[in-house]
Amino acid sequence: MTTTQDATQATALAILDALCARLIEAEAELNALDRAVGDGDHGHNLARAANALLAIRDELAPLSVPEMLKRAGKAVVMSVGGASGPLYGTLLLEQGKGLPEGEASRADWARAFTLAVEGVARRGKSAEGEKTMLDVLGPAARAFEGAVDQDFASALAALSQAAVDGHLHCRGLHASRGRAAYVGERSVGQDDPGATTAMICVQLVAAKLAEGAA
Amino acid sequence: MTKFLNRPEDAVTESLRGFARAHADLVHLEDQPRFVRRKTLTPGKVALISGGGSGHDPMHAGFVGRGMLDAAVPGEVFSSPSTEQILAAAEAVGSDAGLLCIIKNYAGDLMNFEMAMELYDGPNASMVVQDDVGAAGGSATVGRRGVAGTVVVEKIVGAFAEQGGDLEGCRLLAESVAAATRSMGVALGGCRVPTSEKPNLELPLGEMEIGVGIHGEPGRRRGPITSADAIVEELMETLLADMQPKAATPLLLFINGLGGTPPMEQYILYDAAARILDAKGLTVARSIVAPLCSSLEMPGASITLTALDDQMLALWDDPVHTPGLRWGV
């Protein structure tokens, strides 16, 4: 018999696998974006994060979803390095901390996502509007939390769309945080590598959840 | 940008292994998590650690030894070391007298050092070097990048710690040296990370990037390569306008090769910079011309100026015995 708990765990693992595969595949593309405005290591760092998670997949598999997120976040924070390690690790860790143990409602998930994005902002000492991953994650979290009372498919669509819109808006911003800040005006019109990664991740998670909910 | 490599992803590991073996009298390489420490620690001394992405040799591992760092934490090429690496280095060399982290101002380094220090139990302090005046933007929001001036901080504070300076004294001195230091670079070409097919910084042949960062980040201006004198004049004008040194202040003039520019040309740059300082009635008290903070194989150089006071000058002259800097021993 499959319980809800098992189904949630299976979904979480399927999302983990899909995210890791996508980040490894996107390595060269993300490095190229980073070379234009920074030091060209963004794709490597995320691929390293993905490989760090795949290396502990067996350890993650039996855990409850909040514990799985916390353990995954800790691994990324501690072992990945770069700027992405602390930021994505914090995102996972805080998402896990924000969920109740036991049954979590969709509203609980949305709240925890908002809290996790706030955790990333604190870790990076940054805010929206500075041309970073927060320009995707902030609007995405608000859209999801705002729509989560509707049917789930609409909430996921809103989540995904907000990430895409945030990414597009971010392109026109003048970078004032992250390595791109040093290029000044030359950053306007360039895609921010961190924002691009955040969009890829949010879209993929939304799509996987939509598949699971269908 | 052809390279001597086995597997590109093993470049940092193999290079550090060679480094540690070549300098086994001075340093010891720990693996998993990876850091380089002094072979012999001095009990009761404030420990100094630094770290950052690899590819800037001899910075930082080359400055582990008496009179400079106690440990260095190398990340992947151009990428901050992880929190667990920094924590492991801190735990290996930190003493009851304290631990000072010397951090270059990059988001990844700042976050990983900060998290490692949240987890480290002993007395500790951190300071951030931001000496690069070359970038077009960023200084108002993220501060300046930390570049070759970090070497000067590590040398002077390293000597002070060796003499028994306490943790707060070391931190204050490090802040003073950093505040008295400015750097600016120029690239005549790019550099390529071993695991990447493309270079960081793609410069058309005959063009230069004025104000370039040590990872090939854009600077403030790109244009045709001019004479060495004209390039140095542009760098020195920016440095001196920012620094405003007084005529009597003893200056350290440090020409740093970025990896692909030979010593012969580094001395041409030194000559040009020294002539400018002479003409302005400024005093070059100490000089160093060497690739100490490189950027892989990048053809280019940076100029660092530090306005020394008497204490800094004496500490600069103190003995240092590391793989990358050695005098007075």
UniProtKB/TrEMBL annotation, chain A:
Residues in DhaL domain copies: 10-207
Gene name of the record: dhaL
PANTHER family: TRIOKINASE/FMN CYCLASE (PTHR28629), TRIOKINASE_FMN CYCLASE (PTHR28629:SF4)
Alphabetized SMART domains for the sequence: Dak2
Alphabetized InterPro entries for the sequence: DhaK_L_YcgS, DhaL_dom, DhaL_dom_sf, Dihydroxyacetone_Kinase
PROSITE patterns linked to this entry: DHAL (PS51480)
Gene Ontology CC: cytosol
GO biological process: glycerol catabolic process
Keywords of this entry: Kinase, Transferase
Pfam families, alphabetized: Dak2
Name of the protein in its database record: Dihydroxyacetone kinase subunit L
Listed GO MF terms: glycerone kinase activity
UniProt signal peptide: none
Source taxonomy: Bacteria, Pseudomonadati, Pseudomonadota, Alphaproteobacteria, Sphingomonadales
UniProtKB/TrEMBL annotation, chain B:
Location of the DhaK domain: 7-327
Gene3D superfamilies the record matches: Dihydroxyacetone kinase, domain 1, Dihydroxyacetone kinase, domain 2
Enzyme class name: transferase
GO cellular component, one term: cytosol
EC numbers: 2.7.1.121
Keyword field: Kinase, Transferase
Any one Gene Ontology BP term: glycerol catabolic process
InterPro entries the record matches: DhaK_dom (IPR004006), Dihydroxyacetone_Kinase (IPR050861)
Classification via Pfam families: Dak1
Membrane-spanning ranges: none
Organism superkingdom: Bacteria
UniProt GO MF annotations: glycerone kinase activity; phosphoenolpyruvate-glycerone phosphotransferase activity
Keyword Kinase appears in the UniProt entry: yes
Protein name listed in UniProt: Dihydroxyacetone kinase subunit DhaK
UniProt gene name: dhaK
